[in-house]
Amino acid sequence: MKKIIVLFVGLFSVSSFAQNFELGKVSIDELKEKIHLADSSASAAVLYKTGKNYFELNSEGYFILVSEIEQRVKIYKKEGYEYATVEVPYYTGGKLVRLYFDKAVTYNLVGDKIEKTKLKSDGEFTEKVNENYSIKKIALPNVKEGSVIEYKYTLKTPYYMAFPDFNFQTSIPVNKVQLTVEIPQYFTYRRFLKGYAPINMEAETVVKNRVNNYNDSRIVFKGEEIKALKEESHVNNIDNYTSILQYELAATNFPNSVVENFSTDWESVAKTIYDDKNFGNELNYKSYFEKDLDPLLKSTLKREDRINLIFNYVKSRMNWNEKNSYYCNVGVKKAYNEKVGNVAEINLMLTAMLRYANIKANPVLVSTQANGIAYYPNRTAYNYVICAIEQENGEYILLDATSKNSLPDILPLRNLNWVGRMIRENKTSKEIDLMPKMISRELINVMAQIDAEGKITGKARDQYFDYNACAFRDYYLKMSRDSYLEMIEKRYNGVEIGEYTTNNDKDLEKPMIETYDFTHTNMVERIGGKIYFSPMLYFAKVENPFKQEKREFPVDFPFPYQDKYTFSITIPDGYEIESLPKALSVVMEENLGSFKFNISSVGKTIQVMATIDVNSSHFSPNYYPTLKDFYKAMIEKQNEKVVLKKV
Hints:
Blueprint: H1 2-20, H2 28-32, E1 44-57, E2 63-75, E3 85-91, E4 98-110, E5 113-118, E6 124-128, E7 133-139, E8 148-157, E9 166-167, E10 174-184, E11 187-194, E12 200-201, E13 205-209, E14 214-226, E15 244-252, E16 260-261, H3 266-275, H4 287-297, H5 303-317, E17 319-320, H6 332-338, E18 340-341, H7 343-356, E19 361-366, E20 384-390, E21 396-399, E22 419-423, E23 429-433, E24 440-450, E25 456-464, H8 466-475, H9 481-491, E26 495-503, E27 512-520, E28 525-527, E29 530-533, E30 555-556, E31 561-570, E32 575-579, E33 584-587, E34 593-602, E35 605-614, E36 618-619, H10 624-638, E37 642-646
Helix pairs in contact: 5-7
């Protein structure tokens, strides 16, 4: 009896939802709506989105996966016009795949009547991305503020190892969304629902496919009033937290056939990749580098020296073509001779050389930050490979030779994406933590003078260590000097940079140092004969990056860090100190971070020391209130004023 009740409720809910949405039935109320009721800042909103995945048999009796999407979008502002251009990528590298749009219409309210403008042929086109993928695009016509657009597209494909990802959440609010999935009895799929939006999954039911005379399992997923997924501070890839449903084929069991299993685990994925000739075979070649490496290796016997020698040799010889892959394209031999290669060619070459020097080195599969987190076992979860050296104590040294500025255990920031998977020579694999544990420091020393007119002049010296140094060299040293200084002047509004020098640009074992003279003319307030200024000058943070009342997904910092500031500020003649901010020490729970502020004066000089420690690179949403309050207290203290009065 309980099962019948659940089934009845599910069917009733589906029917109720369907009554609310039908293409072509746009209402005057929808067209009159000026702002989104739950999010007045929204430039557009998805009023309804329905999807359906099901199978049909083609004329030859083979299964075809059909994915249908119907969507209605309200445009509130000009910034929302971009949602009237729809792009759908699809595979075109093999058997025939069909993707087509229909029922694409723009609705506007003219007087008290609804005006319909249908999509014409010149508003639809196909763009070939590469030999395997294309994008079908439509640009809906006559779009204005207040328009409602809707469309449908259908994808028919013989490739059903995975369903197209279904997004329940987007960068604009979604009022109602529903996906129905119907799978024939011959298929078993694994499903993965990620994200933080509340999505309800109704009880699975079995229905008779009357056309083809087999049973389908049916599941309906629904969501309502889903908030826009907006970019927030300290998120390395917002797509990691988008609510998406993914299906992957686990097994087939066709009549008169044995069960065929496709379901896999990370061990199987790693082995499959290693067995590919463009991966594992490339690790076996050594003749191309022996004559160059042998003379170098004869000069040193220490293990650590051999590691550094080979790592630096590959970095100095090879140039990354900025192509990501764990598979070689031209192969390590050709890449070595031409001194340029993709990620796989450079780092598999590095691994092979280390093994040649009797160093226990293995490749590590990585999904870069831009590629997102690898949630479930599949080969496309990875797009990068680095090298790991196994230590006797069970620890690992991680290496990536694509960056000239990387060091052992100092990887390019693109690699810092939770975990990777190391594959040993015997094809076993192990999960490897990619996130840094060390604290990367930045030391800022400032000596400044304030004159009676409120003008501040001085000299700043900034030292960058470890990941800070690597990031600085990777990004800022590549900029022109003028562009970089202009960026600093914009960042610290009002500062003017004078003489500027850097040290240790290429000496990676030492901190990166920049030194410059500065002038600032709008940092000081002069009121009633008194002078007011922040003792941290233009380095004082003024805005809390954590503004939301609550946060549903984690806070990501690139790496744990310590920023340490030291100021020596000379006050103008004719003035004395009336008041100084008080010292402060704030410590987050579980030693996740701290802020310490101390200030003192000797004669005409004010001494300030401030230290910010963030001891973790990843904060779960549970710690968001703590982090928000921590930043609030820190920013308030940094902006308290020193008060000077005339003698």
